[in-house]
């Protein structure tokens, strides 16, 4: 191992605040430095979270989307997809069932679908909170400050709104008709309303490079994010980026590990996309700094329809089977499933408690 790289890893263990140039250096390990990078990230993860892994059950309640992001199979102009929407009572029932099989936190996720008004979503959140003891994350895209405020008052605890890249030019290229500035406005609004904020990026996007990846990692720190979702770009033939190659597991793991070094207190998922590219992808992510897994809790008849990318794993499994399987994966690497809500340490320090309805 190069002495300079070893010194950088030691600095990470001592809580150093890295510059962009240092992050770029960390993202370029030589082959014999890869294991040391992952082990250092794992040591930091263990120091903060112990050996517990937080589960977030994903409820994909609509695959309609009004956006045309170049990489996403849910994009409005994709005609090769069967669309669906769940009604409020279905969402509540699925959420309650997920809690009954052991989930303490759920992600209500959809495309950007204005069919679900803020009032409708507030009603769903209140009904879930009145029925079961669970933390709720929303992943429903860009809305106005007042919408976010009402959703927070209804009981939403967290909000996941990835921008996929912090490079303005690349963002605009990937997201036609959307504004990078508005995306950041949304994230800042959510922070001001005391949501736990989730952001993140994709690794292996066309036109991306190590410099833009380093900018992403610095951005996560500056935004003071609570959760960072990092997954590989997976090429979808039903999108304009279908001709490009997918990202790789190795590159994604490097970004994940360096993100842990730079942002030690965040919740980092070992993503489903990692597991879709490599049958041991989630295990590798958990051993490279991740502390969260996000299994699907949808009924089987809907799972194949939420196709952001092709060949997603676990689309034919029942929710209880997935829950049993993921616990086995976690136990196989010497970890345990957390029985708590999985708040980020930063959120706990700020005094953001999970909002329970009376």
UniProtKB/TrEMBL annotation:
Q: How is the cofactor bound?
A: Binds 1 [4Fe-4S] cluster. The cluster is coordinated with 3 cysteines and an exchangeable S-adenosyl-L-methionine.
Residue span, Radical SAM core domain: 51-271
Entry keywords, A to Z? 4Fe-4S, Iron, Iron-sulfur, Metal-binding, S-adenosyl-L-methionine
Q: Which NCBIfam families match?
A: rSAM_HydE
Q: What Gene Ontology molecular-function terms does this entry list?
A: 4 iron, 4 sulfur cluster binding; metal ion binding; transferase activity
The prosthetic group or cofactor this protein requires is:
[2Fe-2S] cluster; [4Fe-4S] cluster
List of residues binding S-adenosyl-L-methionine: 164, 183
Annotated residues for binding of [4Fe-4S] cluster: 65, 69, 72
Which CDD domains would you find in this protein's record? Radical_SAM
| Protein name as catalogued | [FeFe] hydrogenase H-cluster radical SAM maturase HydE
The residues the record assigns to binding (3R)-3-methyl-D-ornithine are 139
Q: What InterPro entries does the entry give?
A: Aldolase_TIM (IPR013785), BATS_dom (IPR010722), Elp3/MiaA/NifB-like_rSAM (IPR006638), FeFe-hyd_HydE_rSAM (IPR024021), HydE/PylB-like (IPR034422), rSAM (IPR007197), rSAM_sf (IPR058240)
The cross-references to SUPFAM superfamilies, in alphabetical order and at most eight, read: Radical SAM enzymes (SSF102114)
Note the PANTHER family from the entry: 3-METHYLORNITHINE SYNTHASE, BIOTIN SYNTHASE
Q: Which GO terms describe its biological process?
A: sulfur compound biosynthetic process; water-soluble vitamin biosynthetic process
């Amino acid at each position: 191992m190069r002495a300079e790289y070893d010194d950088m890893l030691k600095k990470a263990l001592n809580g150093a605040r890295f510059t962009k140039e240092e992050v770029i250096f960390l993202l370029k390990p030589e082959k014999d430095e890869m294991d040391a990078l992952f082990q250092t990230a794992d040591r930091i993860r263990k120091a903060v979270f112990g050996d517990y892994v937080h589960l977030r059950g994903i409820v994909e309640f609509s695959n309609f989307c009004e956006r045309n992001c170049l990489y996403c199979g849910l994009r409005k102009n994709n005609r090769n997809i069967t669309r669906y929407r769940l009604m409020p009572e279905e969402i509540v029932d699925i959420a309650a069932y997920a809690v009954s099989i052991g989930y303490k936190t759920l992600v209500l996720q959809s495309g950007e679908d204005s069919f679900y008004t803020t009032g409708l979503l507030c009603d769903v959140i209140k009904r879930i909170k009145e029925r079961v003891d669970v933390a709720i994350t929303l992943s429903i895209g860009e809305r106005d400050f007042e919408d976010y405020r009402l959703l927070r008052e209804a009981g939403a605890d967290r909000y996941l709104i990835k921008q996929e890249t912090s490079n303005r030019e690349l963002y605009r290229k990937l997201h036609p008709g959307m504004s990078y500035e508005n995306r950041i406005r949304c994230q800042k609004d959510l922070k001001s309303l005391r949501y736990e904020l989730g952001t993140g990026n994709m690794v292996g996007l066309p036109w991306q490079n190590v410099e833009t990846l380093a900018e992403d990692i610095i951005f996560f720190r500056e935004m003071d994010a609570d959760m960072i979702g990092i997954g590989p770009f997976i090429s979808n033939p039903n999108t304009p980026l279908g001709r490009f190659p997918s990202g790789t597991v190795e590159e994604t793991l490097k970004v994940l590990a360096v993100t842990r070094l730079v942002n030690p207190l965040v919740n980092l998922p070992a993503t489903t996309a990692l597991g879709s590219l490599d049958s041991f992808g989630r295990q590798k992510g958990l051993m490279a700094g991740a502390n969260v897994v996000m299994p699907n809790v949808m009924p089987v008849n809907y799972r194949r329809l939420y196709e952001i990318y092709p060949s997603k794993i676990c689309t034919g499994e029942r929710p209880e089977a997935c829950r049993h399987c993921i616990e086995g994966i976690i136990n196989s690497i010497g970890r345990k499933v957390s029985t708590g809500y999985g708040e980020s340490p930063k959120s706990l320090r700020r005094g953001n408690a999970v909002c329970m309805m009376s």
